[in-house]
Amino acid sequence: MLYQKDICIVGAGPGGCATALFLAKAGIPSLLVDKAVFPRDKICGDGLSGWSVAMLNRLNPALKEQLAGSREALPSWGARFVAPNRQVLDVPFVDRHQPDARPPGYVATRLWFDNFLMEQCKAHPLIEVLEGVELEQWERQSADQVILKDKAGQVIVQARLAIFANGAHSRQAKALAGLQPDKKHYVAGIRCYYQGVEGLHADGHIELHFLKEFLPGYFWIFPLPGGRANVGVGMRSDVVAKKGVNLRRAMLQLIAEDPQLRERFRGARPLEEVKGFGLPLGSKKRSISGDCFLLVGDAASLIDPFTGEGIGNALASGELAAQWAQKALEAGRWDAAFLRGYDAAIYNRLWKELRLSKTLQDLLNYPWLFSLVVNKATANETLRQTISCMLTDLDVRQQLKDPRFYFKVLFG
Ligand SMILES: Cc1cc2nc3c(=O)[nH]c(=O)nc-3n(C[C@H](O)[C@H](O)[C@H](O)COP(=O)(O)OP(=O)(O)OC[C@H]3O[C@@H](n4cnc5c(N)ncnc54)[C@H](O)[C@@H]3O)c2cc1C
């Protein structure tokens, strides 16, 4: 069957679903195609940051409420940082004991979360969903028409605009936009679900362990509902290659041999094999549109270079892609020169934060400085509060680029 729609979205992860839902909100129909049949897993840390929750709220406040009310999502009230010298710093993002306190973030498996978004798409009359179809080939037939074919070369879709939200391994990001993997701006990540890890924080703090062996990346433990935890490591690919690290072996060795972690994992049981996937970082600007196409989410390389979070930016780029699809429809323009406005809109919104996160990633080249800030903050309530604000407020976070901040930490 041939599907004919002005707008076809390839990939129904958070980026693709958000694009379809924002388009639908503006009254614009779309076709949403995924190679998988949902619910499907996606290798991830499963952390839904405050930014992801804010984007969900922007899409539809009812979604935020449903997330908050679901037993599948564990509220996360803060973060626990473990510095390279093993000093532990717990930073609550909000005071949960305030009467109106709402958790800023959650941890929920992607198996559940992505299906939650997909269900919204399936229920919307303006969104036509096609599952189990891998769109591999693309041909531009005229100035305002593209066709998309499946693996067998059969034409499945005819559209004016293709929005590729098909993730870190998007072929079209390479073939059409020329986005080549760049190891300095790419992270290799692995994940394993465990049951029964000891010592998880009572307020669901996510744990980020900045251990020397994984810098400039980290080992994480993110608590999930039901006594499970998402455990993993992310490390920049150029460093993995340079040091010849086998991430899977290194993580299992850490869990088995590290004196502190060994105790916490003594009674824990892995629920699966360790699995890996790539994280294309947004630490450099790229061209993310062209004649009759836009890239969204991981396909556009928009992951935060310090935290490894990509869901919030996938949702945010989905909103902007929907806006630019609407503009293109109204103007009857599908050419690269017009759609380049989408690139500008993306970087206007996200670049300040992405650049700052790159600075923080660079800071991890100085583990002693990181350890020092954590050391001081454990003994200093004001500094702890400043760091808590930094994690939620971009303007306060700018201080981290200012050498005077470190001077104050050292001598203040
Ligand atoms: C180990 C690891 C840990 C991470 N931890 C976090 C975290 O804790 N918090 C966070 O915010 N982010 C995290 N991320 C990043 C996050 O997973 C991604 O940024 C996010 O999934 C991007 O969403 P997306 O919609 O762009 O792509 P995806 O979620 O990858 O979705 C792409 C979709 O496209 C489909 N698809 C692919 N090719 C085709 C095709 N040819 N035709 C049709 N469909 C296709 C796929 O089936 C998939 O459903 C992590 C990533 C990794 C690898």
From TrEMBL:
Alphabetized InterPro entries for the sequence: FAD-bd, FAD/NAD-bd_sf, Geranylgeranyl_Rdtase_fam, Geranylgeranyl_reductase
Entry-linked Pfam families: FAD_binding_3
Coiled-coil portions: none
Highest taxon listed in the record's lineage: Bacteria
GO MF terms, alphabetically ordered: FAD binding; oxidoreductase activity, acting on the CH-CH group of donors, NAD or NADP as acceptor
Segments forming domain FAD-binding: 6-314
UniProt-listed NCBIfam families: GG-red-SF (TIGR02032)
PANTHER family from the UniProt entry: CONDITIONED MEDIUM FACTOR RECEPTOR 1 (PTHR42685:SF22), GERANYLGERANYL DIPHOSPHATE REDUCTASE (PTHR42685)
Protein name per the record: FAD-binding domain-containing protein
